Amino acid sequence: MGQQSQFAPDYRDSPAPLFQQVIADDPVAAPPILREYSEIDIPVARVPRDQYRSIDFAALEMERLWPRVWQLACREEQIPEVGDYVLYESPGASLIIMRSGPDDIKAFYNSCLHRGMRLCAEDSSVRKLTCPFHGFTWNLDGKLAHVPARWDFPDMRDDAMNLPEARVERWQGFVFINRDPAAPPLQAYLGHLPAHFADWSYGDRYLATVMRKTIDANWKTCIEGFVESYHLAGIHAQALPFGGDASTQYDVWPDDPHVSRFLEPTGVMSDQLPVQLSEQQILDAALSAVFVGAQVPELEAGTKARHYMAAGMRAAMGAADGVDYSTLSDAEAADAIQYSLFPNIIIFRSLGYPYVYRFLPVRDDPNRATFEFMIFKPKPADGYIPEVELVDLGEGDSFAGAGILPPWLGEIYDQDVTGLRMCQQGLRDGGDADILYSAYQEVRIRHLHQTLDRYLSDDPTDAPGRR
Ligand code: FES
Ligand SMILES: [Fe+2]
């Protein structure tokens, strides 16, 4: 029979415990935001597969989606000094994200106002922006500073030659840009994120490493492959004894078109495993997969595998970060707590997963996307923040082989990359049947498409925040 609950849809029919039941007897209780549940019915059950493979659909996204959404461009700590800039190659617009003043960041279109030359080729630091073609030069605030042979432009007015800018707003050290003057402010766009990250601030962390890999899959195929736990049995079967797939809680909120989340518990067996495991067996399986060669302790009566794993994570990350995590809840220590920000960002709020993902379409190729895997660390007390480590993974390079993630986790991402490539091949070459999404476990995908439809609508006021 279905497990009727205020914490699951009433049609749910699974013997697996709900996330809220799992955390109810955790020794260190979860904070209130993890004890919330929000379900709304999203009727988007099927979409045409052309949305994942057609040049025309990608062009529609380029015209109506990307120029109108808030996009994560970079982190503030990537441009600490005045004159530092990074390039953000957003879909359809190359932008120079410039530290124009001690507390001022601007986003200039990366193109000269003379004959259009690309102004900057790579991340750097400058006193002025000088075009490499004929030498038009701008100050860091975007005002025209110098034109060689100024006499030869008698009709040009200097005050009409400011570098064009996109909007810039910031949250917790993330720098966002928006090319649409009519878009709502970032704070409104972020929906539940500010409240849910109020005491888990990325402002206290810095971007330490970015792993970048081109994936042979549409950007939506990619993000959709990370926002549901339903694929655990198919793609990551080694995690069935402890992966918590069927116990994952999925939240979408009314009037929050850009944010969704899942709460995936650790140390809970899948309902797709044909046998019932004891807590000791769950711990044995988890530790042998996660900490190869670790001594597996005898669990004391009444202690659950997840409690042991949470304590282990607090100790391990505490030692790695030099921070006392002893009072952190078991859920925050052990579970995968993951939010998405429309259209292309995933942000974790988990001790063991200090990660943010960004997915960007590859120009003119709906079958490929760039996956940027960002790893954060707590800001050190002495304030010294090293330069971000950039790791480009080539076609044959694996996440496991990069040696940056724990080996078991690298293997998980390699499985995902293989799965996404196969999914895209099927989408591309597999005929014309519509794609189908499940009602609950894939509600975040429905949510993404519902919001996408609003941006792509013929009526521009259908986009969120435009009425
Ligand atoms: S194109 Fe930039 S100075 Fe000529
Ligand atoms: Fe996966």
TrEMBL record:
<keyword id="KW-0408">Iron</keyword>
<dbReference type="InterPro" id="IPR036922">
    <property type="entry name" value="Rieske_2Fe-2S_sf"/>
</dbReference>
<protein>
    <submittedName>
        <fullName>SRPBCC family protein</fullName>
    </submittedName>
</protein>
<dbReference type="InterPro" id="IPR015879">
    <property type="entry name" value="Ring_hydroxy_dOase_asu_C_dom"/>
</dbReference>
<dbReference type="InterPro" id="IPR001663">
    <property type="entry name" value="Rng_hydr_dOase-A"/>
</dbReference>
<feature type="domain" description="Rieske">
    <location>
        <begin position="70"/>
        <end position="177"/>
    </location>
</feature>
<dbReference type="Pfam" id="PF00848">
    <property type="entry name" value="Ring_hydroxyl_A"/>
</dbReference>
<keyword id="KW-0479">Metal-binding</keyword>
<keyword id="KW-0411">Iron-sulfur</keyword>
<dbReference type="Pfam" id="PF00355">
    <property type="entry name" value="Rieske"/>
</dbReference>
<dbReference type="InterPro" id="IPR017941">
    <property type="entry name" value="Rieske_2Fe-2S"/>
</dbReference>
<keyword id="KW-0560">Oxidoreductase</keyword>
<keyword id="KW-0001">2Fe-2S</keyword>
